[in-house]
Amino acid sequence: MVGAGLAGVRAAGSLRAEGFDGRLTVVSDERELPYDRPPLTKQVVAGTMTGDDIRLAGEAEFGARWIRGTGAVGLDRERRRVRLADGAELPYDGVVLAPGAKAREWPGAGVPDGVVTVRGLADVRRLRAEVAGGADEVVIVGAGFVGVELASSLSGLGVKVTLVEPFGAPLRALGGTVAEVVSEAAGRAGVALRLGVGVRGFAAAAGGRVRAVVLADGAEVSASLVVVAIGMVPATGWLVGSGLALPSGRIHCDERLFARAAGGAGGAGVADPAVVVAGDAAWCEAVRTAEGPVPLEHWSNAAAQGELAGRNLLAGPAAAEPYVHVPSFWTAAFGLRIRSVGLPGTGDREVVEAGSAAEGAVLVAHYRGERLVGAVSVNQGKLLPGYARRLN
Amino acid sequence: MVEIRVDRDVCDGLGQCALVAPEVFALDDDERLVVAPEVPDGLAGKVAAAVRACPVRALVVEGA
């Protein structure tokens, strides 16, 4: 098992539940025991939950050998070995690849102290320490889910927050109506929004610590701390050389979650019956639009894929089941409860089908031509199961 | 007889269970979880999947 996030933990659990009584080794480059990620940017930043409250599994679980703090650096499928950063080699009959993702770092050079990313528990601890240590003006670059959740949690702590989104609208993957509701709620919470303006870089004080974010128009937004929240990159660099197909850095797997070997001309080849894939790093043929597979970086997908990956690895390709999943996502910020089903970002038009943006409770359906591809709710969650059924 | 217990201190009305097993779980107007008084026959598997789909582990099934 490479990766001890939600997908890895669920895979380990289902292997054992299905009767696997052989040796199980869990490898993670994090020292932390497995923990749940959704509360990190919400309750853990806010201080209403701690690392102990979000634990997914203890070391005693799954009768596994745990290797923590040492990442995998190579996969030799011919000799069936996982190579670790300390030089050790782990032989396997089957391997679950659930390496997850890392926060995307700021692409430019010369990043001063006090510019951070947030992905794991250690990052959140550092963020809280910065705030406790007096960081009272925070600029967040990127208004995706992480950026918006952090803006909400930090402003709730009394921090002055500016949210910068070069591409125009917060949570734009959920469509324009929801973006409008979120923008208004953020404004009411005292968060300053700088939308549609790029970031040129950072200005540092004499000691080397960041003092401002420099926008593309030359304006400076003063900051004692900057969070760069511009997405994630799959943690798959170590699989280059494994012979697996890695489209845009994700691990290509068939609809039963078996990893595909790289084929000719950048395409994908045969599936490896000893390698299954789950979670944020997967590029699964069962999760797709008309154009092809799309990545899903959501809790529910990691949980469901992890479970099936463990089961299918044990069953073998002939008896394995296909992955069937209606994507589902939730977030909460500024008192808004936002949920989605399907792939709203893949539609070409959105229709308000209940409530309205003005009342802060709205159901937006996303269509591609005449076909429903997703739905997003703000405080209208009771309507979503009906949409999920239509997506099935 | 399958009985479903909801830990109301933990349940946040995320509604993931209602997506997996809408025959048994639903949200009300205030996004609070409503559970059917009786689980229809043949839905034990779906209910188990709904329990596993709960991100905050608020559901427990007894007597399955």
TrEMBL record, chain B:
This protein's name: Ferredoxin
Keyword Cytoplasm on entry: no
Alphabetized GO MF terms: 3 iron, 4 sulfur cluster binding; electron transfer activity; iron ion binding
InterPro entries: 3Fe4S_ferredoxin (IPR001080), Fe-S_cluster_ET (IPR051269)
Functional summary from the UniProt entry: Ferredoxins are iron-sulfur proteins that transfer electrons in a wide variety of metabolic reactions.
Domain of life where this protein originates: Bacteria
Protein keywords: 3Fe-4S, Electron transport, Iron, Iron-sulfur, Metal-binding, Transport
Origin species: Streptomyces nigrescens
Record bears the keyword rRNA-binding: no
Pfam families: Fer4_15 (PF13459)
Cofactor requirement: [3Fe-4S] cluster
Gene3D superfamilies: 3.30.70.20
Transmembrane segments: none
